[in-house]
UniProtKB/TrEMBL annotation:
It comes from Rhodopila globiformis. Residues 78-97 are annotated as: Disordered. Keywords: Toxin-antitoxin system. Belongs to the ParD antitoxin family. CDD domains: RHH_NikR_HicB-like. InterPro entries: ParD, ParD_sf, Ribbon_hlx_hlx. This is CopG family transcriptional regulator. SUPFAM superfamilies: Ribbon-helix-helix. GO terms for biological process: regulation of DNA-templated transcription. The keyword Plastid does not apply. The keyword Phosphoprotein does not apply.
Length: 97
C-alpha cells in the first residue's frame, strides 16, 4: 500500500514560480518536496499557536475572570506596547474594552 496520495492542485503564478525556483536552485529535488516542507511548516505553526492559546491565552483569560481588577484599559495597553508605562507590564491583562 502506498504511503502517499497524489493531488492535483492549482497555484497562483507567483507561488508556482517560487516552487520551481526552489527546485531549480537545488534546495529541493522535486516540487512535491517543496509543498511537503511548506505543509510541515504550516502544521508546526498551527501547533505553536494552539500551544500559545492553551498555555498563555486561556490562563490569562481565566485570571481576569477570577480577578477583574487585573484588567488593563486600551490606553494602558498602548502605553505598555510603546514602552511608556511600567505599571502596565507584568501580570495584568487587557480587558479589551
Amino acid at each position: 500500500m502506498r504511503s502517499t496520495q497524489q493531488f492535483s492542485i492549482t497555484l497562483p503564478h507567483e507561488i508556482a514560480q517560487l516552487v520551481r525556483s526552489k527546485v531549480a536552485a537545488g534546495e529541493y529535488a522535486t516540487e512535491s518536496e517543496v509543498i511537503r516542507d511548506g505543509l510541515r511548516s504550516l502544521m508546526a505553526r498551527d501547533r505553536a499557536v494552539e500551544a500559545w492559546l492553551r498555555e498563555q491565552v486561556v490562563p490569562a483569560c481565566d485570571a481576569v475572570k477570577a480577578d477583574p481588577s487585573r484588567r488593563l484599559s486600551p490606553e494602558q495597553v498602548r502605553a505598555a506596547l510603546a514602552g511608556g508605562d511600567a505599571k502596565a507590564s507584568g501580570t495584568r491583562t487587557w480587558d479589551g474594552g
